[in-house]
Every structure is written in structure tokens, then in C-alpha cells.
Amino acid sequence: MAVREPRPKARSNGHQLAEQRYIERNPGMDLDLGWVKSARANLSAAERRAATLGTRRTVKKDWQAAWLLRAVTCIDLTTLSGDDTPGNVARLCAKARQPVRQDLLEALGVADQQITTGAVCVYHNRVADAVAGLKGTDIPVAAVSTGFPAGLSPLHLRVEEIRESVSAGAREIDIVISREHVLTGNWKALYDEVKIFREACGDAHMKSILATGELATLRNVAQASLVCMMAGSDFIKTSTGKEPVNATLEVSLIMVRAIRDYYERTGHKVGFKPAGGLRTAKQAMNWQFLMKEELGDEWLFPNLFRIGASALLTDIERQLSHFVTGRYASERYMPMA
User: What is the C-alpha R_g of the chain?
Assistant: First the structure.
């Protein structure tokens, strides 16, 4: 079955992307333990659903190019290495400003559209560098925070880290939850923790990283997703990218269905961000298919969907080059940053 949306040329101009960068925030709600404890997840059903996602849906030619361009606008272009420097952050920001080569955009007929990545994601100590590199654009800086990736530093230090990142110019904060609260079923502690983080974020949008590869069961993932949304998360995110198992379609399915359940019950839309291990254009499209089928077209834009990645953009650009030229270019002609 062919998936037709989105179509090239008629979508995603710069003004539209700016307007769709953010939506009305999720205000959260009181912790509903009855709802949390009633959450269920069927592993075998999730595996069957995930296995068919990339096989029964196809998009070709100009439609595929349009989907890939849309994916570019949803990427949180990321560098989270111990050897990050102001120079490599500056290069990353330059790539975020111009993620696809100008000649390809011209050949695709979208050279007049301001196509950028959804955000640039860095550690706290590189926030100021990223803010400087993105000056004059609407591209937000996202800072990983709260003792990323393990989240084991004292609570007051995690809260202060959020505040300092916001003060340095971060407009989005990716927090990590305490996995212990999930594994012990201490939902009140998880709710209180995430609520404190949300308050510390102020006007900055908050993405809650569940580190799903460390949560043991899909039911835990479903319950943690609900608690984080109740506490006011603007996005829920699969992984830090540092766990042995990061984003998978199975765990993503459970999380987006929790988002759908939350929206149906409260009327508040929460975004979703898979991260860790997404490196190919085909993978990106599988996650786009998941969002469209489970949540609808609204969740195909950067205000409600992000992909945390570093190498993904290189493969997307190669696929777009192939669409334009009929051959694959060497990756050295399309450096990530």
C-alpha cells in the first residue's frame, strides 16, 4: 500500500516550519495511579506490528524525496562526545542551517524553502557555542541535562543543571529519568521528579528520556510514558543513545500509543522522539510511517516529532542525491558536519 503524504514542493516552507516549531504545551495533570497501573503492553503483538511497518508501506520517487525532506526538518542534530569542541559544534550548527546541499534543493524544486533541522542537541558546556552558531535562525538548541546519561547525580545538581542550560540559551531540555523509580514501581517519586524538572525548565520545552533499554519490560515503558506526560513532559523520548539497546520500533509503538491514549483522555498533545541507532533513511521513514499510522499527520512535523541522530542526515542526503542523479555519491562528498 502506498503512503501519499507528504507531497513535495507544496509543504514545509520556512514560515510553516517556524509556526510549527512549537504548539500549546502539555500542562500535565494530577498523578492518576489507577490509569498508570491499568496500562498493559503485549510484546508479541508489538513485535508483529513492528515487523510489518516497513514491508507493507512504500513510497517511491518524488513522494520518497518529500518524506525524506520532511524527516530532515525533524532531526535533532546531535553531538554528545567527550571530545566535543567549539569548532565541531560550529560545524554541526552550519549543517543544521543547511542540512541538504543547495544543488540538490534546486534540483528538487525546493530551493526557495527554508529547510533546516529541528534542533541542535549538545551537552550543557557546549550550549553557548551552539547558540552562537545558530544566531539569526529559529533553530533551537537542545541541552541534555539532569546528569545525562545515567541521571544519578544529586537532585539539586540536576535541577541546577537545567536552570544553567536555560540561562545559557537552551530552548529545549532533554532530561533523563531515574530508572530506579520505574523498576521499583515508585510512580509517585517519578512523577514528583519529572514535575520538578518541568518547573526548572520554565519556558524551555522538556523532553523526558525514558532509557527504555534499561526499563526491563514494555509495560514499564507504557507506565513510565504516562507518568512523564502527567508530570508535564512536552515530549517523551526513547533513549540516551548510550544504552546497549536504544530506539526500536516495538518500544516506540508502546510509547506512541501511550501518547494517543493521553491525548484522547486529556486533549493535550505530546511529542515523540526516538533516539539512538537511527542511521539510515529507511529507518527514518519507518518511524514516520509509525507516527502517521498511530497518531496522524500532525505528528509528522517537528513540533511533535523529532529524531535524535548524528549520522542519519548523511544517508538521507545520499538518498536524495540518488533520486536527483540516479547514482549514489560517496559519503565524503556529503560530510555530516
Answer: 19
